[in-house]
Amino acid sequence: KLSHAQRDALVQDASGDSLDAVLCLLQAAWAEQRHAEGDALYGLPPGLDPLEGWIVTAETDARSITENRSG
Predict the structure, then answer these.
(1) Is 8 helix (H, G, I), strand (E, B) or coil?
(2) What's residue 7's pLDDT?
(3) I need a labelling partner for 3 at 20 to 30 A (CA). Which of 18, 19, 33, 48 fits?
(4) Which residue, 57, 2, 71, is CA-closest to 28?
(5) pTM exceeds 0.70 for this model
(6) Contact call for residues 50 and 36 (beta carbons, < 8 A)
(7) Using CA atoms, how far apart are residues 18 and 56, in angstroms rounded to an integer?
């Protein structure tokens, strides 16, 4: 959870670099959690092309996000 000062710093960073860093941290934490749960590919799709560059991205359940905001 962000403090008010952290939120303000993210909002005031017009370059977006701070927000980008936060998003990268979340993606890395999600991938590490997948690996700790036994996913050797850190959440990347099976059968991926090993010659391509891949960026891990956390899955979301849009329905649960919407429910949490409304309730």
Answers:
(1) helix
(2) 92
(3) 33
(4) 57
(5) no
(6) no
(7) 19
Nearest CA-CA partner of 30 in 58, 54, 6: 58
* pLDDT score recorded for residue 65: 44
Q: Amino acid identity, residue 56?
A: V
Place of tokens 């939120």: 7
Q: What is the mean pLDDT of each run of 10 residues along the chain (71 residues)?
A: 92 94 91 94 88 81 51 50
Instruction: State the residue for tokens 């993210």.
Output: 10
Q: How far apart are CA 41 and CA 47, in angstroms?
A: 10
| Residue 25 burial class via C-beta count within 10 angstroms: exposed 0-12, middle 13-18, buried 19 and up | exposed
